[in-house]
Amino acid sequence: MTRHLNRSLPFHDWPIEDQKAWSTCYEGEFDIFDERSGAKLAPSTIYGRRAAYAMWLGFLQALHPEALRQPAAMRVERSLMKNYVEYLRENCRETTISINLSRLHYALRDICVGQDWAWLYRISRRIAWRAAPLKHPPIISLDLYALGLRLMDRALWITKKASRVRKSAAVMYRDGLLIATLAEAPMRRRAFAALRLGENVVKIGSRWQLVVLPELSKTKTLQNYQLSERLSSRMDTYLDRFRPAFPGANSHDYLWTYIGRPMTDKMIRRRTIKWTKGSLDGPVSPHRFRTAAANFISLMDPENVRVASNLLGHKSFGMTEKHYIDAAQSRIAGRELAKLLQRGPEANDGKR
């Protein structure tokens, strides 16, 4: 599968009419009386629709540039959309294509008012129905946490042997801490990349606290993670010895640093995949750390599995159970709970 084959068209290169229509629907200040589409949408939703529309325009520029001279609604023909789907298949899975078309459908519905776009949505759903789900090997937080500790220990050994902090050791320690921290505090990738010293990363006593502000939370709620004593100690070492080894680290206050600038969420994703791909059964993206946490809780403490929803920042356990707790792990947790129940009420005496 070719990487980076599908190119999006930057906003400043969109046809002028498309730019105006998009800005009218999705940009500017919104108040409670605003009836524009963007007034009721989260920024992440608008971002997704813009990315899908930019991908569509990128396809047209690459293969059908004459279509960009037509009004937006006239470009979307069924035959051209069929070509677009085949174009996406060169570099995307079916589920990704379905999501892309669904977002494109909503964007077109908003900027091309009065047109019937239901047919495009139906196509996206058909693709989704026929798509084979991607199977990931089961993973739990303990495996990820152990990997992070190994990387940090290796970086410390290299540093001790060299009597100085080499760049490779600094990168390894940072990545190990990054992986172990995500295992303990499985927040979403965007919030994880946005952590800033003194604002979201605060030390209280001997423990570090990671605070996710409501604007960085999908549910618009405050999330607070307290790191363990072990990991807090590792955080101290990172901030004292390894973070300063990155050139330009003192020019910003973001926790995760690269050379001269903070790490982006995409960089964090690449680093976690790099290390997990070679050390575990397969690559683990930051989002799968959340599944690993829910699975770990369901296995180790099935009686209190509902705390997983609080850990992941969900408003209901139903969301956690539906999307994050693996079905097989749920069955194992159910069996463990059944064993506890079979012991009778006396098994719980003195535990309350």
Would you mind describing this structure in some detail?
This protein is mainly α and 352 residues long. It folds into 2 domains: 11-130, no CATH class; 141-331, Intergrase catalytic core (hpI Integrase, Chain A, Orthogonal Bundle), CATH 1.10.443.10. Helices cover 56% and strands 4% of the residues. The protein is built from 15 helices and 3 strands. The protein has helices spanning 16-26, 43-63, 72-75, 78-89, 94-111, 118-130, 141-162, 167-184, 189-193, 229-242, 265-279, 286-300, 307-311, 317-323, 327-342, and strands spanning 201-204, 207-212, 223-226. Strands 1-2-3 form a 3-stranded antiparallel beta sheet, covered by helices on one side. β1 (201-204) and β2 form a beta hairpin. The protein is elongated. It starts with 15 loop residues before the first helix and ends in a 10-residue tail after the last helix. 34% of the residues are buried. The model is unreliable at 298-317, 319-338 and 345-352 (pLDDT under 50).
